[in-house]
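Fill in residues.
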């Protein structure tokens, strides 16, 4: 009787096919989170949108309100149809003025025709990395600050 030690080519091919099938089903289920580079990209997009609204307020000679929705995780331009949406795996928080001059604002950052603003800060964070997009209430200047989240 002959000793058959080993596997046939058909057996190896079947095992590889089963492994490939399991991998193709399992890999898409792996959570893919927002990378630190992508998080910084969201901060840059938000800052660009805010700067654009400030410039629009100065050029048009009127107030422009940039709307923030923490529940929907969006920042929506008041001067155009531009919107920045942050994915659900990113912590989104905003600190905004309750009043701007003689009116209540609460969910917007208002830019005035003079270039000033009502100020505010938008924080986005994930896995120990945080970016804050800050709007100076006096000058309307927009800046991005990077910080390690504790």
């Amino acid at each position: 009787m002959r000793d058959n030690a080993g596997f046939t080519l058909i057996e190896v091919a079947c095992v590889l096919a089963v492994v490939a099938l399991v991998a193709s089903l399992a890999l898409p289920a792996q959570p893919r989170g927002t990378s630190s580079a992508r998080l910084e990209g969201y901060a840059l997009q938000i800052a660009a949108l805010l700067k654009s609204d400030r410039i629009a307020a100065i050029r048009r000679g009127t107030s422009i309100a940039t709307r923030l929705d923490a529940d929907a995780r969006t920042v929506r331009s008041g001067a155009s149809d531009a919107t920045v949406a942050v994915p659900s795996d990113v912590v989104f928080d905003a600190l905004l003025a309750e009043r701007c001059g003689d009116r209540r604002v609460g969910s917007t950052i208002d830019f005035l025709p003079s270039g000033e603003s009502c100020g505010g800060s938008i924080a986005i964070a994930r896995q120990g990395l945080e970016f804050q997009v800050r709007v100076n209430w006096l000058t309307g200047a927009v800046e991005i600050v990077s910080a390690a989240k504790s």
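The chain has a mean pLDDT of 87.
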